[in-house]
Amino acid sequence: MTDWNPALYSRFEQERTRAAAELLARVALDQPKHVVDLGCGHGNSTELLARRYPQAHILGLDSSEAMLAAARKRLPAIGFERGEIERWSARAPVDLAFANASLQWVPDHERLVPRLLSAIAPEGALAVQVPDNLAEPSHALMREVAADSRFAASSGAASAVRSRILTAQRYYDLLAGRAAVDVWRTTYYHLMTDAAAIVEWLRSTGLKPFIEPLAPDLRQAYLEEYERRIDAAYPPRADGKRLLAFPRLFFVARRRPN
Questions:
Q1: End-to-end Cα spacing for the chain
Q2: Which residue among 127, 196, 204, 213 is least crowded, i.e. fewest CB within 10 A of its CB?
Q3: 131-136 contact pairs (CB < 8 A, 24+)
Q4: Which regions of the chain are under pLDDT 50?
Q5: Is 142 within 8 Å of 209 (Cβ atoms)?
Q6: Between the CA atoms of 138, 139, 143 and 145, what dihedral angle is there, to the nearest 10 degrees?
Q7: Tens-digit pLDDT profile for residues 28-60
């Protein structure tokens, strides 16, 4: 994929940041010294961490140069580095590794999640939130439209870009031997003005791998067909607006003392 678009991503920043704030609220650490924001994006989650832990050394890690540039502009006092989560290794154990809406782009959670926990200091925490919406109409329709004969040759394999997450029970089992685990799932119902707003939300994330391989005319045709189906899948409510259901899975693993 091409680089991420911070301006497009930030159009729904309040809605995106809500889950990060609710994840951080369940982290029971008072004064962590070393914190890493894995997949920090344009810095909205890093800003939450900096506000709560002003004395901590915080590192933001992301694979996108564009997102990192936006994060550095937003938080000039914080250190940011380019890197892949699947290749990240801590120079020394960290007190908090925070991954908000980033691990869904990283494969093989069976290995990844235990490895991330191993980077946590005793009594530190691994805090993760991942979208759990691949079965929702918003994402099922992406795959359906991509399978249309007009788009299949270019976009049909795009669904493999995002990794399928594990179940809440499996994450618990992977972590419970070495940590106290708090796991939960929340469905947010985001109020959207119309079907076009839902498409706009998703263009910066889930739709990106589907539409990028397409030539401009096919990209426009894909988006028009996708919006038509979204309009039917998310009908107007009593006030004419739409509710976008967005399930998310959370867990906080507090590393046991050695």
A1: 42
A2: 196
A3: 131/101, 131/104, 131/246, 131/247, 131/248, 131/249, 132/165, 132/185, 132/247, 132/248, 132/249, 133/206, 133/245, 133/246, 133/247, 133/248, 134/162, 134/164, 136/245, 136/246, 136/247
A4: 1, 3-4, 9, 160
A5: no
A6: 20
A7: 999 999 999 999 999 999 999 999 999 999 999
Given a contact cutoff of 8 angstroms between Cβ atoms, the answer to whether 62 and 82 are in contact is: yes
CA distance 240 to 194: 8
φ and ψ of 244, to 5 deg: -95, 110
Q: Which two tokens stand for residue 7?
A: 């301006």
What is the predicted pLDDT for the residue at 121?
97
Which residues sit opposite 187 in a β-bridge?
Answer: 247
pTM of the full structure: 0.91
Domain 6-255, architecture per CATH: 3-Layer(aba) Sandwich (3.40)
Q: How far apart are CA 116 and CA 50, in angstroms?
A: 21
The DSSP letter of residue 238 is T
